[in-house]
Design a protein that fits this description.
Blueprint: H1 2-20, H2 25-46, H3 69-99, H4 104-108
Helix pairs in contact: 1-2, 2-3
Amino acid sequence: MQLDTALLVGTLFSVALYLILQRSFVKMLFGFVLLSNAVNLFLLAMSGPPDGKDSPIISPNSSSYVDPLPQALILTAIVISFGVSAYLVVLLYRLFLDHGVTNACELYHPKSGDTSKGEDAPS
């Protein structure tokens, strides 16, 4: 079970880093979402297995409680990553509306002869 989780976290990290290093901003967005999910799964895996531990709500007299800190960190990370992902989606949409491209190479190095880019084009 722990080996499966470690392989899944490693795969998610590697795919996310590969997508973040791409030239398309849409792939970068998907890479960021995968990276945030990989971090959440990593935090959950590092909290340890709950084998032999009771929940504090079910048996308050038990001495082996489940640590609630990783769960609180994951919940906070989910909320923050959702907010940042929503911001990146809106930023990507605005970039597409302003420039008409979602590729970093086309954004910074426009094709020769294309003067429809607005104020930055030489006259």
